[in-house]
Amino acid sequence: MTDIFDVIADGTRRDILQLLLRRTTEGETGTSVSQIVADLGISQPTVSKHLKVLRDAELVTVREDGQRRFYSLAVEPLEVVDDWLVPFLVDAFGDDAPDIDYPGAPIPESAAHAAEVVGRAAASAKHVVATALKRLGA
């Protein structure tokens, strides 16, 4: 499998992922290549090339409807990036870690706070365990 960090290192691919995320939060069930071309102002061959890389990395899914293909974001592979990044935020900022602005549907403030507390605790625990295992040579 392609290294996800190599895939998302490209700015055009990040732009495509952000566009697909935005369209998903707006209720779209898929975005065509022509819509991506129009929204980002890049050529169709360039979009197709980048979508192939994103498909190979399983960051997008494709739905065929006749001759047209509709692409959607698949966020699960990005959990690898999240797992890698969170310990740095916890180490660098502790309880003052910056909030990540996700343009998804709003959730109640109490649920958001609970999720944030649990997420930080889990990331911190994971980091502590990983550090302890490294020290033990495991």
Structure description:
Helix 5 (79-93) packs across helix 6. It is elongated and about 55 Å long. The chain is mainly α. The chain has helices at residues 4-8, 11-25, 33-40, 44-56, 79-93, 109-136, and strands at 31-32, 60-65, 68-73. A three-stranded antiparallel β-sheet has the order 1-3-2.
Q: Which descriptors would you attach to this protein?
A:
138 residues; mainly alpha; three-stranded antiparallel β-sheet; 6 helices; 3 strands; 61% helix; 10% strand; elongated
Helix and strand composition category:
mainly alpha
Q: Nearest-angstrom radius of gyration?
A: 18 Å
The coarse overall form would be: elongated
H/E element order: HHEHHEEHH
- Number of H/I helices: 6
For the sheet with most strands, the description reads: 3 strands, antiparallel
Can you count the beta strands? Answer: 3
- Contiguous runs where pLDDT drops below 50 for at least 5 residues: none
In spatial order, strands of the major sheet run: 1-3-2
Strand content: 5-15%
Please report the distance between the alpha carbons of the first and last residues: 25 Å
If you average the pLDDT, what whole number results? 82
Helix content: 55-70%
Helix-strand layout with pairing:
Elements: H1 4-8, H2 11-25, E1 31-32, H3 33-40, H4 44-56, E2 60-65, E3 68-73, H5 79-93, H6 109-136
Antiparallel strand pairs: 1-3, 2-3
